[in-house]
């Protein structure tokens, strides 16, 4: 049955006051406001229209959302088409982005919550691929979490129909500074090495989405920003989070040297040392450490250097579902979000983003990886 079209929302239905700006870039602005009728709080994602390509990008995102409705994909409340305002009106997610939940909450998530949210994202990505759509910007900042710990995959702004992707596909570029690389889309720490190696840009495939998912899965398991612990001989503790890691160095290390984020303690380092998770080989329920290490093995197989060696998303989804069902409290899903012990708090007060001479605390809910390595409209930065 065809999905009904999104509701057209008159611009006047929104309160004139912005409650909070969540994100602003050269291509879009995201903020919270309320509906005049009823006062419901909503999120507005307004596309900045400066050229025909921007209008096409707005229409494409709506088309993907329309064609790919799924319980773990973000569903808009409605659409505003009132020139010069073109915006998507979205529900508010109480716990915000998964990135903020991981790195700005100051609390450790339970193993069950981590697996449940990753399983939700895996299901969403499988659904997109089944519909012939490549997401092309999988990362924890593009995952939203509701009050019950359910996760939905968001932001299809960079997505494309798989049948239309070629090695020469480009997005409209704005020379706003930063590390520039044409013909690729994504966010640097999550980008597949084949995309970083090519001057013109390799063809984006499902395997690129799988790689990005693997980086995100490991980020959730460790609650550590990808590469924030990276140390190189001539770059001492230059981290992505602090915006001091040289982009060229990081790109080279990922693409040429096989650099990957640190994994949970006790995890095997070689991809060949761990195959697919087989619940039949383990007693039930499994302890938390075994679950985490097995999930880390899934992440490692997702980020294999060779695209052909990466585990297909349907298999990834099945393995995560099996691991989730192997937990001692299987069935509770993500309801118990945080560990009971609150004594171990993450030192987020000292985590800052240095951008244009400013220091922005992660506790202000700013998106660190959005400001450090986002490839948007054909550039990184």
Question: In terms of topology, how is this protein built?
Answer:
Layout: E1 7-8, E2 20-24, E3 28-34, E4 41-47, H1 52-67, E5 78-82, E6 85-91, H2 98-103, H3 111-130, E7 133-134, E8 143-145, E9 151-153, E10 160-161, E11 186-187, H4 193-197, H5 206-222, H6 247-256, H7 288-302, H8 313-325, E12 352-355, E13 358-361, H9 368-371, E14 374-375
Parallel strand pairs: 1-5
Antiparallel strand pairs: 2-3, 3-4, 4-6, 5-6, 7-10, 8-9, 11-14, 12-13
Structural descriptors:
14 strands, 381 residues, alpha+beta, single chain, Phosphorylase Kinase, domain 1, 2 domains, two-stranded antiparallel ribbon
Structure report:
This protein is an alpha+beta fold and 381 residues long. The protein has two domains: 7-91, Phosphorylase Kinase, domain 1, CATH 3.30.200; 98-375, Transferase(Phosphotransferase) domain 1 (Transferase(Phosphotransferase), domain 1). Helices cover 28% and strands 14% of the residues. The protein is built from nine helices and 14 strands. Strands 1-5-6-4-3-2 form a six-stranded mixed sheet. A two-stranded antiparallel ribbon has the order 7-10. Helix 5 (206-222) runs antiparallel to helix 7 and helix 7 packs antiparallel against helix 8. The protein is globular. The termini are far apart. Mean pLDDT is 79; it is low at 169-183, 231-244, 269-273 and 342-381.
């Amino acid at each position: 049955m065809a999905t009904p079209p999104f509701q057209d929302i008159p611009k006047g239905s929104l309160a004139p006051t912005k409650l909070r700006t969540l994100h602003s870039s050269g291509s879009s602005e995201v903020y919270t406001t309320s509906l005049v009728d009823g006062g419901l709080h909503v999120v507005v994602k307004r596309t900045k229209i400066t050229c025909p390509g921007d209008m096409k990008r707005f229409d494409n995102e709506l088309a993907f959302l329309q064609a790919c409705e799924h319980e773990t994909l973000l569903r808009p409340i409605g659409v505003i088409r009132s020139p010069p305002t073109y915006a998507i009106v979205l529900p508010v997610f109480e716990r915000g982005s998964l990135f903020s939940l991981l790195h700005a909450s100051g609390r450790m998530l339970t193993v069950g919550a981590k697996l449940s949210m990753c399983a939700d994202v895996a299901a969403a990505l499988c659904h997109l691929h089944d519909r012939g759509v490549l997401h092309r910007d999988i990362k924890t900042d593009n995952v939203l979490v509701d009050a019950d710990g359910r996760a939905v995959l968001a932001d299809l702004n960079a997505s494309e129909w798989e049948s239309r992707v070629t090695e020469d596909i480009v997005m409209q570029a704005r020379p706003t500074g930063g590390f520039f690389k044409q013909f690729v889309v994504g966010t640097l720490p999550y980008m597949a090495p084949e995309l970083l190696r090519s001057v013109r840009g390799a063809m984006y495939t499902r395997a690129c989405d799988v790689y990005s998912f693997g980086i995100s899965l490991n980020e959730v398991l460790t609650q550590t920003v990808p590469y924030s612990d990276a140390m190189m001989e001539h770059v001492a503790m230059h981290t992505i989070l602090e915006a001091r890691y040289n982009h060229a160095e990081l790109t080279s290390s990922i693409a040429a040297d096989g650099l990957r984020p640190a994994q949970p303690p006790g995890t095997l380092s070689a991809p060949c040392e761990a195959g697919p998770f087989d619940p039949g080989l383990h007693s039930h329920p499994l302890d938390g450490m075994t679950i985490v290490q097995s999930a880390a093995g899934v992440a490692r197989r997702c980020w294999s250097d060779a695209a052909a060696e990466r585990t297909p998303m349907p298999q990834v989804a099945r393995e995560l579902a099996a691991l989730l069902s192997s937990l001692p409290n299987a069935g509770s899903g993500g309801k118990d979000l945080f560990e009971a012990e609150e004594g171990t708090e993450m030192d987020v007060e000292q985590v800052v983003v240095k951008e244009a001479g400013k220091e922005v605390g992660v506790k202000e809910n700013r998106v660190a990886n959005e400001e450090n390595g986002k490839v948007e409209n054909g550039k990184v930065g």
